[in-house]
Amino acid sequence: MTDTGVPTGLVGFARALRHAGVPCGPDRTRAFVEALGHLDLTAAHVYWAGRLTLCSEPDDLPRYDAAFTAWFGGGPPRPPSARARRAGRLAALTTGTGRSGRPPTLKVAASDAEVLRHRDIATLGPAEKRHLDELLAALRPVPPRRRTRRAEPARRGDPDPRRTLRAMLATGEPVRLARRRRAERPRRVVLLIDVSGSMKPYADALLRFAHVVARAMPVEVCTLGTRLTRVTRQLRHRDPGTALAAAARAVPDAEGGTRLGETLKVFLDRWGQRGAARRAVVVICSDGWERGDPALLAEQVARLSRLAHRVLWVNPHAGHDGYRPVQSGIAAALPHLDRLLAGHSLDTLRELLEEVRLA
To answer: What is the pTM of this model?
Structure first.
């Protein structure tokens, strides 16, 4: 038995399913086992719990039915009622009659959103990527704040002699002491996204993430490859499909090589030194593979760190077990970074947003 009370033999069914061609990894197997921990181990419950947690695309369903029949014997059970299907996106599974005489309904907690949280973006199928796009659009980024030199009225803070004196002159009587504090405004965020061939599995999701950020805060977005392309204007469009299509048309070097040092130098010479990077939170999204001179990259990242408030590097491979920052580009830049973060899943992108907010 497992910790959830589900026989370990059912995990063998998930293994047989992988051999049949259904890409059900450890996350989906764990969701399958957890779902069965809340259900009676009837054939119908096992079938629907497995179908809802182990299958990710319509093409998986015939292979799943064949594997279920071969493993357990007998054909697939009848589908649940329309009422049960409406109870949740993954459907609700019901148990038999309880002690009270009423048939309680148990909703499977292993939702597709929960499963997708930790999945590597590079391993998602087409249907899962469409769902990931919906989850990315639901993010609510909060911009970082910075204090300005201007003061604003406040209930608590330093005394404001000028406002206090004006109030006294207006009334001719002593008044309550006015106070002030330094005003705050959103801090600029700069996203530099590597769209080279080695970043192809992640580039589309990162650009969609950039579209969400661009709609919520002051941001500059540029792509890095063999050249630098500014796509801020394209990503400000309300519709994500239109914005991504416009950005794709604007980027001439997608899925090409990577010259991080040269493109960072162009960014700093053209926009960064003039104000885009000054006191900003700069996020570089790249796997660190550099075809150019690593010494040039180190020089430009050091230059960037002197201008920016914080420099964060997001490497999708940093979230994998056993990762070491040994690539020429990331090794050269690492001494000048404030944080090296992973960006391979929805959960790590949420952590990035929190890191930016607190910068």
So the answer is: 0.66
